Amino acid sequence: MQNGCCPKCGQSEINARDIHPDPADPASTGLRLSVYVCLGCGYTESYTHPLDLVAIRADGRWRSVDRGPVTGQTIQLSAAPAPATPDASPKLALSKHCPWCGSTKIIKRARVRDSRSTLSDVVVEIEANPDALLFSGAIHGTLRARICGRCGYTQFFSGNTQALYQAFLEAEP
User: Fold this and answer.
1) Number of independent structural domains in the chain
2) Is residue 161 part of a domain?
3) d(CA 16, CA 26)
4) CA distances from 102 to 71, 145, 163 (A)
């Protein structure tokens, strides 16, 4: 995704956002993340800032994960258009196995919450008119996660991808 191409659907409509930790939040991991979202299929990847990797290695709260089989394969997604509902988005992942360890212990449709609010799901946002002071035409898609119950490998999917993509097209010059 960092190269501007989605590994799931091959599209190049990728948006990115850097997320910085909130030092006042006791639930914060303290990690700086870069999050990439494909506007074509909703697939999402996140990367930890390289300087935080040193801190993770030194921090005893992080556990080491046993290496699973490396297949070089990614989960193939349906060629059908993305559903418009957030709960349906994770159903795009057809595999019943974890791509990292091969386990079938898959947690589907996990809600992704903002650590500062127990009521809010994390959303992605595209503004059809980003230069507007008011009424920017913001379109949201709720993130859902698919988690391996054995190794913790996590994939994120966004709902409302068709509307997000349309807003993206409207924002392009």
Assistant:
1) 1
2) yes
3) 26
4) 10, 17, 33
